[in-house]
Amino acid sequence: MLARIIGIRVYGVKNLHIFSIYTFRFLHANTTITTTSTHFLVDFLVNSLGFSREEAVTTSNKVTRSKPPKNPDFVINFFEKNGFDNTQIKNIVSKSPKVLFSNVDKTLKPKLEILQEIGFSGSDLVKFANANIHIFDRGVDTFLRPSLEYLRTLLGSDEDVVKVIKKTSWLLSSNAPKIMAPNVLLLQNIGFSDLKLRKFILHHPRTMMRKTEWLEDVVHRVETDFGIPRESAMFVHGISAVSSFSKSTLAEKVDVYRSFGWSDAHINTMARKLPFCFCLSEAKIRKQLTFLMKEVGCTSEYLASRPKLLMYSLEKRVIPRYKVLKILHGKRLNSGLGLYSAACMTPSTFMKEVVLPYKDKLPLLYGSCMKSVQ
């Protein structure tokens, strides 16, 4: 019995010893391969792309493959032939070094070709690809083409598709059809026509990539909090404004209006007429209201029904024209033109109808207006 036990132990020790030897050899071999691969990649980055040794080591550490790239020179040549300069190639490789392992004909070339198909070319193509290197990580048939075809269906033209992906390039790296479809259906169900939907996507592609529950909440707030009915032409602009800010940020903007004595009724009146007033910064709102209400004497009711006045530049338009009207009124030359009407005029119309009639009587005013009125 003792012999059997000893034999088993000896047998086990021998096998354990043999196993350890093979394990050591395997790990040593793989470590050697990985080390060789790392050294090769570091040397290539330094010698071919001008990386510093430190940059090359940092970049190579992002690579998990044990074998070195087969033909990294082919990859570099491909980018050079397509108009990428060394700085741009270095940027792509430093952010995604695995691109050096890519097959040029099967992987890289089709991705640039699909962008060329929708209208990218020359420097535009290079600039877009350099700024959005994630496209090199996405499959042509699994991500890029389905997303582009879906966007083409929604927008109607490759030109508009290019505009959208320039604004939100990760439409190509995400599953756009799956993410956008529920939001498209939501907007269609609340009355968005195809034309209105196209315009909304063009201006707010990021909003269309949000969760549907979030967009439903935005729609609800536009209707209930700001009182903009769905059939209103301003409803789409209300969604644009509300979706651009968090609830807390919008609440802070509303509080600024309230601090100047605005009632909720007046705030809602303004929102229904021009929701973009909520896109102004708090500082801008405060500055506009300080001048218009405290200097000019406008009431909240007056401004709520004429919200465009809040959107104009004080320095370039409102104040210069207010000063002109004040001078004319002091000379009893003003025919009763109000600030709102004056501010809404184009520069040429304002000069023609308000300033030029008094050019001879008030030459200094005319000269001043030629420089400042816009």
Automatic annotation (TrEMBL):
SMART domains linked to this entry: Mterf
Presence of keyword Transit peptide: yes
Entry GO MF terms: nucleic acid binding
InterPro entries recorded: MTERF, MTERF_sf
Keywords recorded for this protein, A-Z: Transcription, Transcription regulation, Transcription termination, Transit peptide
GO terms (BP aspect): chloroplast organization; DNA-templated transcription termination
One annotated Gene Ontology cellular component of this protein: chloroplast
Record's keyword annotation contains Transit peptide: yes
Pfam families: mTERF (PF02536)
PANTHER family found in the cross-reference section: CGI-12 PROTEIN-RELATED, TRANSCRIPTION TERMINATION FACTOR MTERF2, CHLOROPLASTIC-LIKE
Family from the record: Belongs to the mTERF family.
Name listed for the protein in its UniProt record: Uncharacterized protein LOC107793250
Record organism: Nicotiana tabacum (Common tobacco)
Gene name of this polypeptide: LOC107793250
